[in-house]
Amino acid sequence: MDLGIAGKRALVCASSKGLGRGCAEALAAEGVHLVMNARGAEALEAAAAEIRAAHGVEVITVAADITTEQGRAAVLGAAGDVDILVNNAGGPPPGMWTDWEREDFIKALDANMLTPIALIKALVPGMIERGWGRVVNITSQSVKSPIAVLGLSNSARAGLTGYVAGTARQVAGKGVVMNNLLPGIHDTDRATALDGGVSKAQGITVEEARKQREATIPAGRYGTAAEFGAACAFLCSQHAGFIIGQNVLLDGGAVNSTL
Question: 212-218 long-range CB contacts below 8 Å, 24 or more apart?
């Protein structure tokens, strides 16, 4: 299927690896030029070089922390007039409800709610002027089914979801399509880190911890960054114009619900 977005320009945040990298790869495969951002310059440049070589698209890199004002200013300065925005940032650390203080919630909100909102406010007006745009926010399955040890993430991402629900419906008539992708467990560094935490807590190997989690997923495995990226690319496509303000689960069936 031709997604109809060749020649468009996308900003993909936190895209040197993991789900962000999967989204960048999938968009580049459709002929979309990229502005890639990540904190680590070395990994970012390596990813960008591989994508340029594989897909022949223009790739601009900005090594910066997107969750800071300075980082956002640098990224936005390089991004210019983008047609597609993929919001992504690493999740806050796990813990229990008794562990977190006000400062912990502020950090989580800054990274996983207020940063995406700031980028939406900065870039969507230009999309409206041009009559076309796509915004995909990478949130979490915990928005639909909270995960106790990820309470900071549950809270911040749920706040972003509420903001998007209202905003998406205000901009849809102007050609801007905004949705959320809710990943379950994917084979990324984040999953490895969480498996490591379970390993230490239960005194088992990381491989055993992974097998435990895989057993909770009806699909019987972790997701891949490539299949996540493909879903992102479709939501950014010309074919997604009637999908507005939705929360799309990619979790292998882990969230057990009818709706």
Answer: 213/185, 216/254, 217/184, 217/185, 217/251, 217/252, 217/253, 217/254, 218/252, 218/253, 218/254
Under DSSP, the state recorded for 258 is -
Cβ-contact 28, 4 below 8 angstroms: no
What is the distance between the alpha carbons of residues 60 and 77, in angstroms, rounded to a whole number?
A: 11
- Burial (CB count <10 Å: 0-12, 13-18, 19+), residue 125: middle
The pair of structure tokens assigned to 213 is 């989690």
pLDDT tens, position by position, 72-93: 999 999 999 999 999 999 888 8
Q: Percent of the chain beyond pLDDT 90?
A: 87
Angle 62-72-179 (CA atoms, 0-180°, nearest 5)?
100
Residue 38 phi, psi dihedral angles, 5° rounding: -165, 165
Two structure tokens written together for 171: 């901009």
Bridge pairing between strands 176-183 and 133-138: parallel
What tokens were used for 59? 């790739």
